[in-house]
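hey
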């Protein structure tokens, strides 16, 4: 069958978008277990950020008299690759080669500890001023070695094989692979433990939960027949199926992902899109094709074979912010709100 494939506007955005297809596979969700206070130096699982009672599995000093929570070191944690890390103290010199993790570090108030970031790290504004460490899929080995960081954070776009290769150069790589919003919050809480920023991490997670609740409350009364069929074209010619956080965002927003019968990230198929007949098409705003110099929404509208698709006939194309919807970091719930507004502007304000 004929496939629709357009070259992406920007090589940087293509690398970021396709980096998603390499991603994910880690932390657990949910959790209603009571908080456990491990012994000093005991290996613990990452904290859970799911519904129900929050767990606090990493060693902490019990607050007394209004004192802030403090991590008790040594702290042992496993990353997404299964590697065990022992932290004798909070890392004081950090590099991040993932935009999501860079955003998390800044959200935890650790901007002054960041010694380098990836070429894609551009939020918050201060991130642009940090030394650059190369791409998110192939960091600059020399720059990483020269940075001599206590810890280097990598995210969903860096393959485990690349992580292991960098570890072979004595670079202390810590990898996360979130697949869901709960996974993202798990990681933020875990970083709060590692960097002794627990209270800041809990505030960030509380804000994220509030945004998620805002969306789920807004769409909770939708009947099955009222739910919109949604296609997400996250880069020209590419969509996302089940098992990835973008699919979860569509579902939480009350939509039905027409690509949910596909696993992971895949090229669009023209006949399938016509048969699925999406009522809403989501796409990243301000994305320009580097060959045609056209915006992605213009490219979508000009596909003559899609003229019968409901979303085209009814002009229901909704642009969303490419960063908040593609970076599984502290702004992912802001991306959820954007997606929900795009699908149900009458329900989500």
């Amino acid at each position: 069958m004929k496939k629709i494939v357009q070259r992406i506007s920007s090589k940087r955005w293509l690398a970021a978008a396709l980096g998603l297809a390499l991603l994910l596979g880690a932390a657990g969700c949910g959790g209603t277990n009571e908080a456990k206070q491990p012994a000093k130096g005991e290996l613990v699982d990452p904290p859970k950020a799911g519904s129900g009672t929050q767990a606090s599995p990493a060693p902490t000093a019990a607050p007394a008299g209004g004192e802030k929570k403090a991590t008790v070191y040594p702290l042992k944690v496993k990353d997404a690759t299964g590697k065990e890390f022992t932290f004798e103290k909070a890392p004081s010199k950090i590099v991040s080669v993932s935009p999501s993790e860079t955003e998390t570090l800044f959200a935890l108030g650790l901007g002054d500890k960041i010694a380098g970031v990836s070429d894609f790290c551009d939020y918050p504004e201060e991130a642009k001023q940090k030394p650059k460490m190369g791409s998110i899929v192939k960091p600059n080995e020399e720059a990483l070695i020269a940075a001599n960081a206590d810890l280097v954070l990598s995210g969903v776009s860096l393959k485990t094989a690349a992580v292991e290769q960098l570890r072979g150069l004595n670079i202390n790589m810590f990898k996360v692979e979130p697949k869901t919003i709960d996974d993202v919050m798990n990681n933020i809480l875990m970083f709060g433990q590692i960097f002794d920023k627990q209270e800041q991490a809990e505030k960030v997670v509380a804000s994220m939960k509030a945004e998620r609740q805002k969306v789920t409350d807004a769409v909770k009364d939708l009947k099955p027949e009222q739910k919109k069929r949604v296609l997400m074209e996250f880069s020209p010619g590419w969509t996302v199926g089940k098992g990835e956080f973008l699919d979860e965002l569509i579902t939480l927003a009350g939509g039905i992902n027409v690509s949910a019968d596909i696993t992971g990230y895949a090229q669009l198929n023209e006949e399938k899109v016509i048969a699925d007949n999406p009522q809403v098409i989501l796409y990243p705003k301000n994305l320009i094709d580097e060959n045609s110099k056209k915006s992605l929404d213009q490219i979508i509208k000009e596909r003559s074979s899609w003229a019968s698709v409901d979303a085209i006939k009814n002009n229901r194309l909704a642009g969303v912010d490419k960063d908040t919807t593609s970076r599984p970091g502290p702004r992912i719930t802001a991306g959820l709100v954007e997606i929900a507004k795009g699908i149900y502007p009458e329900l989500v304000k």
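Residues 1-18, 20-43, 46-59 have pLDDT under 50 and may be disordered. Residues 108 and 203 are 9 Å apart (CA to CA).
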